[in-house]
Amino acid sequence: MIHSLLKQYILPKEVDFIGGLREHAHIVEKIIADLLQCFSKKKTKYCKSILKDEHQAQHIRDKNMHELLNAFITPIDRESIYRVITQLDWIAVSVRHFLLEADAYGVDHLHKDYHPLITKLLHAATLLSEGFDGLKKENSAVIVSKCQEVRDTYDALVAIYIQEMAVLSKCKNPHKVFVEKELLHQLKEIGKRLQMCANSLEDIVMKMQ
Prior knowledge:
The chain is mostly helical. The chain has seven helices and no strands.
């Protein structure tokens, strides 16, 4: 009874920050899965899902940020939580920007050579989600391993990007070169931001030791 009253009126509210970050990571993974379905497999209904999911990601971001700003204490470093929230948001926004740019150029699907790039993005997003799931179990070894796999996946993505840019450099159509260069760069940037978020997740693990 006394503990209940203390918890209700005196003790600071307990916020599940880890749960909030996991939720955010999973919706980011879904956004990139939608991207693969939309542009590589030509299933246009998933393009609309990207915008819907990005709106949900924004809602999760705002909720997590509000709780962080109003929390008296946090279970892990406050700045680390903030960094991850903003980086997950950055990934989701970058996918939306890719969608808007592709729409502006009149691109409703990408040729098969783009499939490996977006597949790598989805793999990295899945690994990142699994890393955040590991926070709940406080399994640092698994999290560190997943973060390294994200970095390895980004390296593989960059190798594909370089190959595609080399092929594109031989194209004589300036419009095609401009459009594909922009879209390829956007996909590379999404991968880079996934890696940066993995680095921040690893930073959280190191500070929890």
